[in-house]
Each structure stands twice: as C-alpha cells, then as structure tokens.
Design brief:
- This protein is of the alpha+beta class and 96 residues long.
- It has a single domain, classed as 2-Layer Sandwich (YaeB-like fold), CATH 3.30.2310.
- Helix content is 36%, strand content 30%.
- A hairpin with a 2-residue loop joins strand 4 and strand 5.
- It is globular.
C-alpha cells in the first residue's frame, strides 16, 4: 500500500514538532517518534481504526493530544491531517 500525505498534513506535523521542541528540548523528537508509532499501527491494520468523518478514519496518539486522520484510496493510504485535538473539529475536511 502506497503512503501519501496531504501537504498541509506534513506542515501540521512539522509545526507541532517545532512547537514541542521549543517548549522543551527533545520533546519535538519524542512527538515525531509518537507520530511514527501511530502511523505504524495504522499501516499494520488500516481498516481497524474507526471512521471519523465520511470515509476518513482517525487514530489518536497515545501521549500527545494529536491524531492522524486518513483515508484508504484504492491502493494507497492518504494522510489528510495530523490533527491537533484541541483545535476546531473538522478544519481539515475540505482537503482533497
């Protein structure tokens, strides 16, 4: 299965990691590690995680208040958002 990322999801990931790194040195790398662990869980069993909005699914990080929002598209998995759970819900829904 091919992994695709929406450009704004990449930007969200980078901004969150920078914010955590600025808050406490080393925390940004821990955030990125948590993202990778969450992504591995998704890739292992993509249809296991609950539907969130339409055909999109969501899996929350264990440690940080973030989630990966993704959809399964034929032979690929598209990450639509690295969603801050404290933000306005659904801000990412217009993304194609």
């Amino acid at each position: 299965m091919q992994l695709l990322r929406h450009p704004e999801a990449d930007e969200e990931l980078e901004q969150a990691a920078l914010w955590y790194e600025k808050a406490q040195p080393g925390l940004g790398l821990e955030f990125l590690d948590e993202f990778e662990a969450t992504l591995r869980r998704i890739l292992a069993t993509p249809t296991r995680w609950r539907f969130y909005s339409g055909k999109n699914r969501k899996l929350n990080f264990d440690r940080f208040p973030y989630a990966i929002v993704y959809s399964i598209e034929a032979d690929s998995l598209l990450i639509r958002a690295v969603m801050d759970l404290r933000r306005r819900p659904g801000y990412w829904r217009w993304r194609r």
